[in-house]
């Protein structure tokens, strides 16, 4: 099982490079990274986040004339691929349709969803109960070295990563959760200070990777498992905010009188 941040980065980076540099061969690795999320990860939030990141970086950074030129070239094969998928693997299509319907039932609280609805509902109830008891300092983590069953030994079936943002409050309390999400806010402020980097491939990728990590953290355990990844993006945005605009070199400092 690969790190999801790496999968998001690969899908977004190669999509951006394909459209920004007109290197259409790069669409192949982009689709491979996306295929891992769809076929092996099979997580609804991860699929949506990957699609948003890939589409966002292309629509935001690629020239519109180039997008219009390749739209038909990509749209027709995509429609053909969807038709083939419906004909060759209808059970797979039905599985993904069921997954997203189940996600809708989970969000709305209806009872039409599968067992996952009741499982998530149970985990949310456990998290809320524990948060009510320890809202400020949280409940902390459990070492699997000393407790092989993890939280299950004390709370029943429960994983903080399954309940997203609520899982952060469960572990760290409300102050800890706000502290971790402040990383995204600070990174966004640094990002707004960056000028003249629209054609910078790494910057384009990083800003949408930051968005992907934020969206992923809302329902998945992105920050409960890998908070350092968001911190890395914040550091990168800080670095870019201190650079001169692309194509412009900072003027050299004038020597003081009598020292030239």
Explain what you see:
Helix 1 (4-20) packs antiparallel against helix 9 (201-219) and helix 6 packs across helix 8. Helix content is 70%, strand content 0%. By secondary structure, the protein is mainly α. Mean pLDDT is 79; it is low at 106-113, 249-254 and 256-260. It has one domain (4-241).
The share of residues in extended strands comes to under 5%
Terminal CA distance: 60 Å
Output the radius of gyration.
22 Å
Parts with pLDDT < 50 across at least 5 consecutive residues: 106-113, 249-254, 256-260
The beta-strand count equals: 0
Biggest β-sheet description: none
SSE order: HHHHHHHHHHH
**Mean pLDDT figure:** 79
General shape: flat
**Structurally, how many domains make up the residues?**
1
- Counting helices, strands and paired strands, the structural category is mainly alpha
Number of helices: 11
Helix content: over 70%
List descriptors:
single chain, 260 residues, mainly alpha, flat
Question: Which helices and strands, and how do they pair?
Answer:
Blueprint: H1 4-20, H2 27-41, H3 44-61, H4 64-88, H5 90-108, H6 115-133, H7 152-155, H8 165-192, H9 201-219, H10 222-225, H11 227-241
Helix pairs in contact: 1-2, 1-3, 1-9, 2-3, 3-9, 5-6, 6-8, 8-9, 8-11, 9-11
Short description:
By secondary structure, the protein is mostly helical. It has 11 helices and no strands.
């Amino acid at each position: 099982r690969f790190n999801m941040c790496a999968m998001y980065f690969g899908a977004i980076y190669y999509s951006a490079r394909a459209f920004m540099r007109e290197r259409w061969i790069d669409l192949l690795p982009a689709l491979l990274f996306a295929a891992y999320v769809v076929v092996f990860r099979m997580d609804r939030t991860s699929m949506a986040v990957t699609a948003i990141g890939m589409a966002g970086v292309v629509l935001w950074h690629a020239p519109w004339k180039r997008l219009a030129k390749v739209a038909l070239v990509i749209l027709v094969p995509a429609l053909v691929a969807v038709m083939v998928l419906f004909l060759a693997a209808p059970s797979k299509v039905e599985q993904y349709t069921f997954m997203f319907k189940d996600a809708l039932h989970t969000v709305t609280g209806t009872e039409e969803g599968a067992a996952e609805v009741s499982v998530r509902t149970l985990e949310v109830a456990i998290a809320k109960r524990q948060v009510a008891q320890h809202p400020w300092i949280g409940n902390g983590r459990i070492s699997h070295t000393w407790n092989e069953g993890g939280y299950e030994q004390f709370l029943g079936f429960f994983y903080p990563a399954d309940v997203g943002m609520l899982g952060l409050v469960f572990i760290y309390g409300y102050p800890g959760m706000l502290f971790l999400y402040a990383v995204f806010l600070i990174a966004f402020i640094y990002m707004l200070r960056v000028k003249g980097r629209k054609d910078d491939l790494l910057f384009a990728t990083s800003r949408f990777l930051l968005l992907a990590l934020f969206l992923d953290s809302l329902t998945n355990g992105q920050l409960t498992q890998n908070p350092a990844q968001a911190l890395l993006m914040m550091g990168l945005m800080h670095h870019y905010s201190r650079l001169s605009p692309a194509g412009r070199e900072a003027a050299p400092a004038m020597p003081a009188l009598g020292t030239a």
